[in-house]
Design a protein that fits this description.
about 150 residues, mainly alpha, transmembrane helix, DUF6698
Amino acid sequence: MVSDIKTCAGAIFGLNPEFFLRGYDRGSQEECRLLICSPHGSYTKFAPVLFPRPNSLLPNDFLKSAVLVKILKVSIHGKTLLSSNVQSSKTKAKIWNLRATMPGMIAAAAIVAIYVLSGDKELLETGQTTKIPYHAYHEFYREHLMMVSY
């Protein structure tokens, strides 16, 4: 999932594709930090990238970002879906017979969005460089989505 997202991250996030090349230091890239940090510069589970308008963080808009939709599209239907409306014949959606989007999938997309923009080299429970608690964030996002869906 992550490698597909990194391949087309420039298009997903609307940023320079060079930022997502192997070895590039995204952790020091201001454009990336603005999407995952609070206005005070600290990492937050309410990362601006998780809102439709990163400059206007309204509570009811949390986890309703088009970025998350793009991440799920690429993860499930393949990279070609971003540039056209034609999906490949062997998508994960068809292979796994997916029929609905579940809270865990959206939470995973949120984690991938934050991770890809961070300076961390590996997606671990807690980021080695950033110390972002990815696992705790995932659980928070999933629980939040389960509560608002009922």
